[in-house]
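Sanity check

After download, print the first record. It should look like this:
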Amino acid sequence: MDEQPSQTTTHLTPDPVESAEAGGRREGARAQRALRAVALDLGPLRESREFRLLFTGQAVSFFGSMMTFVALPWQVYSLTGSPLAVGLLGVAEFVPLFVMAFVGGALADAVDRRRMVRATEALLALGTLLLVFNSLLAEPRVWVLFLCAALFAALNGLQRPSLDALLPRLVRSELLPAAVALRSLGATISMIGGPALGGLLVATLGPAITYSIDFVTFAASLAALWAMRATPPPAGADRASLRSVFEGLRYARSRPELLGTYLVDINAMFFGMPMALFPAVAEGFGGASVGLLYAAPAFGAMCVTLTSGWAKRVNRHGLCVALAAGCWGLAIIGFGLAGQLWLALLCLVLAGAADMVSGLFRSIIWNQTIPDHLRGRLAGVEMVSYTTGPLLGNAESGLAASLFGVRASVVSGGVLCVAGTVLLSLLLPQLIRYDGREGLARKRAEEEARTTGGAV
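Expected structure tokens:
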């Protein structure tokens, strides 16, 4: 039987079988377009060798760091039995991080950023080795744990501005949203697997094994950083000095939408950060659940990054930051009220998704609109903003839990987070009105004016 279609039309309407097939093809094409619209953009990995190296090395190293992120507070709680002591880890970290973030920002605009990341990565590995030795003692010293926490904070303060400032040098500005999402994906996978594995290992094999694995993962990051090409400072870079630090602060103050991203995130994390309470909360659900509690927000963040293709078509970045911060607060309220483990984990997943949306658009604002010669110093300011809230928030939640109970601490923090976000949105209308296209045009004009010696 001839399978070729006849040349003679025998019906005034299309053949129903052919119509269904054509409709199916159209539906399939629409589904593919919809999938491409939200799918993660892999363009930066395909286009940039340097970004591939940085992405791979940092993903492996961060996985190990997330194991220590769980093991260290777990060990403090197991040695002291005090949620307040766990919260005070944030206080120990705050001052060195606050100071060194500004130093690291100034250095990131004055020296080779890759070399800066490599040196601090090696020192972080040595700090992890100190945790291993302390854990092998018959009676581990709590003060060593606090010392290492402060050391890690200081080194992160030095490293992170250079690490953040590297990104705009490795990919085109059009690919920055995709690069931010990819880097967030690597981080969130580590924040899921690292805490889950770290919680299991520290509860079964002990902290020494957990810290040892973290130490080994630094090798991947150092190898990748060694293979990357040098990234010298921008032409005409300012020397690292107190004056250059204040120049960065003045620029941040001149941009209300930047201030808005900082303040909204500080508010959300200070009042709505319950992580210091996870070891205490886990006692009610079973001790091994502590790793799941730490991993749940990262799972929500990963779901957002895997479907982040839509972000490149959004221009109201500031509005998205504010809405996401409010959703974080609502999810934390739900977590505090949850009486079953599955519901608590679901609320934390939703909280992590909201936080990822906020972080994605904050990073886009920062990376697309800040001139390269100021990128390191502003990265230092950004680091202070997104770490101050969690560090002090953990101390606040631990103090509130010791006075009023764990549940009251979590729920009240979520309520204050939502209220503060609404208030800041009213006080900072420039953040809500911010349009990413205008911000990108401003950056290009500022860099051109600096090159030509003119004024914007």
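If your output differs, re-run the checksum step. Summary of this record's structure: Residues 1-20 have pLDDT under 50 and may be disordered.
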